[in-house]
Amino acid sequence: MTVSDETNKAINRNEALITEILKIVDNLPNFVPLKGGIQEKLNDLRSAMQGLRAPRIMVIGRSRSGKSSLINAICGLKVAEVSDTKPETGEAEWKDYHHNGVDLLHILDTRGLHEAEAPRKSDSAKDPFDSIMQAVNKECPDVVLFICKATEVHSGSQQDIDMCTLILTEIQKKYRRDLPVIGVLTKCDELSPPKVNLPTKNERKNRNIDAEVQNFYGYLQQREKLRSHIKKVVPTAAYAEYEDGINGLILPDDDGRWNITELVETMIKYTPRETRGSLARMAHLAEIQLTAANTVVAACSGVSGVVSANPIPGAAITAVAAIQTFMVMYIGWLSGREFSDQTVKDFAVTLGVAAGANAGMVGIADIALKFIPGWGSVLSAGASTIATKGLGDAAIAYFLNNGKADS
Q: What is the pTM of this model?
């Protein structure tokens, strides 16, 4: 079963909340107690959220560098339109890839950087950078594939690197994330000697491929603002012919893909996913489920305390409620339930009295305790932390321990 629209909306909503709280914490003075610990808890929560959805891969590179062909090669299906002569991709678009009912990848196909002519498909954006940022503003990528044609490493790649650096800078400003970048050399089959198919034992061909990988990596490493993002450069060939129609399969006799497996393995390695929670959910391994659940409860409790220390009475109620809702949804998801509001409703109906008392405790803590001179915010934070921890323990007992509290 694929991830539902409701689930995606819930994930995006909670991820946006964590990003906003992280911005607030980042701006606190370094001498504020436990600032580093709270940042770590926020990152734990974001990792848990990322594990609930498929990874988001952004593919960028100049026109005719083979971006759409590479996307099709990765997916093994014709999911992106490819033109033989003219730039095809118009508006930057998130494409979903499913396999056997499982939501595996979300890939952002983009317009070519520094394109010489407008793409065949229409785009309301004024230029490739604006087009890419419109899509990025909707969803934040997890990893970037920076594409360069193997025969063009030395011609114009510097301008492309400038654009890539600018995009990463804007993403960091908006989402507070330093994205990993994987350099991808496409169309390596066109390097000399061009008629030698890949893989090959031809020393000249392999030597030329290795040289261009090192050259491209060297160019990327020369940029100070880009250096820490670059993880690896992977050479590839993506040529293949496909059956007609959307999601057409590769024709076996026309499959010229090379080194795509290494690229996919590299993507998985550097995509920030909380796989432990996903594996625990699928395998129903109780010990790992409890470890993942307790990690999230500790993070939510700590973050709730920080939010409740807000000096404006009543301001934290909505944020704390959202954090608690995510916590219950996540623990329910670990047990095999949908990551949805319905999971929280089922929990609330079964444990109505406890949940109601918890909500009241947060409200009283946030509004009343702040009027105690000097200690109001401290007491509010403490009460919210305790309340969230109690709610998390109750959710663990309900979803993972058959109604029994941890001993």
A: 0.60
